[in-house]
Amino acid sequence: MTGEISGAVTTTADPAPLRPMALLRIRPFAVLYLNATVIGLSVMAQTVARSWLAFELTGSNAALGGVLLAFGVAMLVMTPWGGVAADRLPKRLVLQVSVGLLAASSAWIGLAAAFDVIEYWMLLGASVLQAVAFAVFGPARMAFLGEVVPRGSLGNSVSMLLVNNELSRVVGPAVAGVVVGAVTVGIEIIFLSSAALLALGVLTTVRMPPGLPSGDAAVRSPLGELTDGIRYVLRSPQLTALLWCGFGVTMAGLPYVAFLPTVSSDLFDTGSAGYGVLSATAAVGAVVVGLLMGRRRHRGSETRTFVVAGVVFGAAVGLLAVAPTFWAAVLVLLVVGAGNLAFQTANQSLLLGLSDMAYHGRIQGLVMMSFGAFGIAALPLGALADAVGLRWVLGGMGVATLLVMGAFVLVTRGRLAREDVLRDLG
């Protein structure tokens, strides 16, 4: 695992990746995929409802950012420990506990809304609970892949799970936007239905293998496990570069999702239904690209995919700032979703392929810290948007994303050149 990135992605090193239907015939992966579907639908639907509820309660971009700030701080603190849990404990147990927490956070807000006692601070508390749950769920789910699918198919399996997430983003936000806008008790329906689906998600994990830890994890302290994982990453320039680049792009570009309610209501006057359309549109672009990536028979230059996707994502976020009409924003968001999905797929595939299985959970925990960081960035960006205008902030986010990708290319340009040579020889 100490070789160059190119050594992990040349087509001669691994057998041809399995296609989606072949992967789904692997029973543990099929169960993991079904579990992700149930969780994705419920979480994405309630995310739309919670953002809209926060906007109704406060009417400010800063408040929208505050919900993500609570999520981000908790994620930033807990995700490294979630990675330790994924490597140290049975992964099935980790999944069950985390999905149970997600169900509890959904039920809490649903009941508070039903009894008309909902307050803004409750949304902050629910965001913290959800962040803790994701902090342990995400690393365990991704680490499971190294155990249940062939190594040469890791990229396609990652792509399938990410496409699954984006399909959930198509169905969940679209349904939530319509229900919230058309039904008086739409908020309550979304949250309580999500809690029921998440309870079902806990049941689906019973059919999964236990995912027992490997190596000597049981004889080290959790802090020792975390320290060992960080040292492992720092010993590899390739892993380090992929992690800081993923962190930077996610923190700079992904906060656009926090501002979609304002894009819909303030920029284009389309309300909650328009918010659902915008959220679903980004997911549609992601699904199309993800399905194409999942059908690849050869991985080719994964690093080149990583770079191109990051540049496309950053440029599209910048274009969103100057979209003149609602339908122009819809077209731009197709590209935003496609670029983000391709970037995240390539990043996860490279990280899994370059690391030892015993460290997969901790590395995924470090990856997910970036999603906590984007939540933290959303609050100051939201306050800045209130002060200078949302379009200026979106434009700056796009430029910042492009600068991060430019720095990655400069740092890794020698490795990228060697990868191209090896790919041509292969």
TrEMBL record:
A GO CC annotation given for this chain: plasma membrane
Domain Major facilitator superfamily (MFS) profile: 28-413
CDD domains cross-referenced by the UniProt entry: MFS_MefA_like (cd06173)
Record-annotated membrane-spanning stretches: 29-49, 61-81, 93-114, 175-203, 241-261, 273-293, 305-323, 329-354, 366-385, 391-411
Keyword terms of this UniProt record: Cell membrane, Membrane, Transmembrane, Transmembrane helix, Transport
Name of one Pfam family that matches: MFS_3
Localization (cell): Cell membrane
SUPFAM superfamilies: MFS general substrate transporter
GO terms assigned for molecular function: transmembrane transporter activity
Protein's membrane topology: Multi-pass membrane protein
Domain of life: Bacteria
InterPro entries for the chain: MFS_dom, MFS_trans_sf, TM_effector
Protein name listed in UniProt: Predicted arabinose efflux permease, MFS family
